[in-house]
Design a protein that fits this description.
This protein is mainly β and about 110 residues long. It has strands at about 5, 10, 20-25, 35-40, 45-50, 55-60, 65-70, 75-80, 90-100, 100-105, 110. The chain contains no helices and eleven strands.
Length: about 110
């Protein structure tokens, strides 16, 4: 069974940084685009960043210049480096794998607060 497990979330002050990780198991990792989404309380799930199977990435306007998606194919890991965090970044962050099928992780909570 394919499994995606996020980690690295937590409580951070505004302006701080976090790095989220997504570990993929039993997935043909190089055949999948990897992406990050987030969902704040009372809000719809929104796209954050994507890094394709070929390497090129794209990021939502709200996080451009602050967040960076990356991947390590040898380790079957995806990452989201988050810098200059703002309170509005507070959300549950989800790892997504998109290829022949669609998979989601369970989510990890990121809270940005003083």
């Amino acid at each position: 069974q394919v499994q995606l497990v996020e980690s690295g979330g937590g409580l951070v002050q505004p302006g701080g940084s976090l790095r989220l990780s997504c570990a993929a198991s039993f997935l043909d990792f190089t055949f999948y685009d990897m992406a990050w989404y987030r969902q704040a309380p009372g809000k719809q799930r929104e796209f954050v960043a994507r890094i394709s199977k070929y390497g090129p990435s794209n990021h939502a306007d709200a996080v451009k210049g602050r967040f960076t998606a990356s991947r390590d194919n040898a380790k079957k890991m995806a990452y989201l480096q988050m810098n200059s965090l703002k309170p509005e970044d507070t959300a549950v962050y989800y790892c997504n794998a998109n290829g022949s099928r669609l998979y989601w992780g369970q989510g990890t909570q990121v809270t940005v607060s003083s």
